[in-house]
Known about the structure:
Elements: H1 3-27, H2 32-61
Helix pairs in contact: 1-2
Amino acid sequence: MSYVEMLNRRNKIMKKHVERMILKDNQTGLSYQEDNLYQMMLRELYQNESELNAARREDADV
Length: 62
C-alpha cells in the first residue's frame, strides 16, 4: 500500500467518524468530552487532507 493510498483510506475513515459526530451533535448534542474529541478529529482530518494534497502534488511532479 502506497503512502497516498494509505492517506486516502485514512481520509475516508476520518470522514465517516466526523459525519457520525455531526449527526450525534444534531440529534442529541455533544458532551464536553465528545466535543473535544470532535474538534481533535476535525484538526486531524484537515491535516490529513493537507498531507494528501501535498503527496498528490509530489506524484504529479515526478
